[in-house]
Amino acid sequence: MTPRLALIALMTLPLAACEGVTLPGMGAGSETAAAAPGHRGPPGVSPLEQAIETGDEARPVSTAEASTYNTPAFSARGNEPFWAVDVAGSTAIYKTPDNQSGQPIRVNRLNFAQGVEYVGVRGGRPFVLNVRAAECTDSMSGDRFPFTARLTVSGQTQAGCAAPAAPEIAQAVAATRAPAPAAPRQAAPRPAAARPAPASTPAAETAPAAPAAPAAEPATAPAAEPAASPSQPSTATPSGAGGTPASEGTAELPPPPAAEAPASVVPPITVLPPLTTGGATPDTTTDESQ
Questions:
Q1: What is the C-alpha separation between 170 and 164, in angstroms, rounded?
Q2: Region annotation Disordered: residue ranges (predicted)?
């Protein structure tokens, strides 16, 4: 056996002896750790309330801007037109060229991410002073201020600058008691429209009155016609207007003209003599004078 082969044989012996030994993190131990049951289902805490990764206790985090949040009082100014507001606590003093002493207004303070805002009511309309943490330069004097202000009053918005109020000003403003804003006017209730009284139901229905009957036509007896005379023919002419009653609505119309009736023709009358037993021929002469 050469020395090289003997060296290889000696190196394989330690490897064979370690074949049945379990090393940490390998073999059956890793399989047991993987098979261990873990947490299943939804997390026990919302990630919005507590971070799941660390499991630390929830802590309130301020989202307001620090410099304005820590400033208790402000003095704001604006130009064109001039205005000034000193605010502390729940009172704001609004000054204008027409009112140099100022008008106290009750306000409420609201903190937000960029600054602070004071909201009140003046003359029935919103009064809002918005202060933001942004540097501002006065347009007339050129002075620099740490805050930018915006005032909304009487429906108009005016820009300006603001700074922390002096202690004496803040104390004087906080001691001023602003009147409560007037309650909004309520519309007077309108009286309800009067409803007509329902018509009473009659006890018995009344039959409608029958229309008046037209006046009866007068019965006019026809005049007796005289007996026709053999010598004088009847020349009586019936009157067209006398026998016809006037219809309604035509009383004022003139009577129609009477139609001329033709004279009646009476045939001649032949008088026969009495019959005789003799053979004489009867006289058949017609008397034209009769």
A1: 9
A2: 29-49, 176-290
Q: Which residue has the tokens 């309800």?
A: 192
Report residue 251 CA to chain centroid gap.
66
Q: What are the boundaries of each domain within the chain?
A: 80-175
C-alpha distances (whole Å) from 34 to each of 20, 29, 39, 262 are: 21, 9, 13, 148
Note the maximum CA span of the chain.
218
Residue pLDDT, tens place only, 108-162: 999 998 999 999 999 889 999 999 999 999 988 889 999 999 999 989 999 999 9
Higher pLDDT, 66 or 249: 66
- What is the share, in percent, of the chain residues with pLDDT greater than 70? 49
267 by Cβ neighbours in 10 Å (0-12 / 13-18 / 19+) ranks as exposed
Which pLDDT value is given to residue 120? 94
CA distances from 30 to 40, 206, 210 (A): 21, 111, 119
Q: Which amino acid is at 139?
A: S
**For residues 133 and 74, what is the distance between their CA atoms, to the nearest angstrom?**
12
Task: Give the Cα separation of 161 and 78 in Å (integer).
Answer: 6
End-to-end CA distance of the chain: 207
Q: Cis link prior to 254 (omega < 30° from 0)?
A: no
pLDDT digits (tens, 9 = 90+) for 70-106: 999 999 999 888 999 999 999 999 999 999 999 999 9
Q: Residue 130: how many CB atoms within 10 A of its CB? A: 21
The pTM (predicted TM-score) of the whole model is 0.46
Question: Mapping DSSP to helix (H, G, I), strand (E, B) and coil, where does residue 100 land?
Answer: strand
Quote the CA–CA distance of 128 and 116 in Å, as a whole number: 11
Averaged over 11-25, what is the pLDDT? 61
Half-sphere exposure of 178 (CA within 13 A, CB side): 25
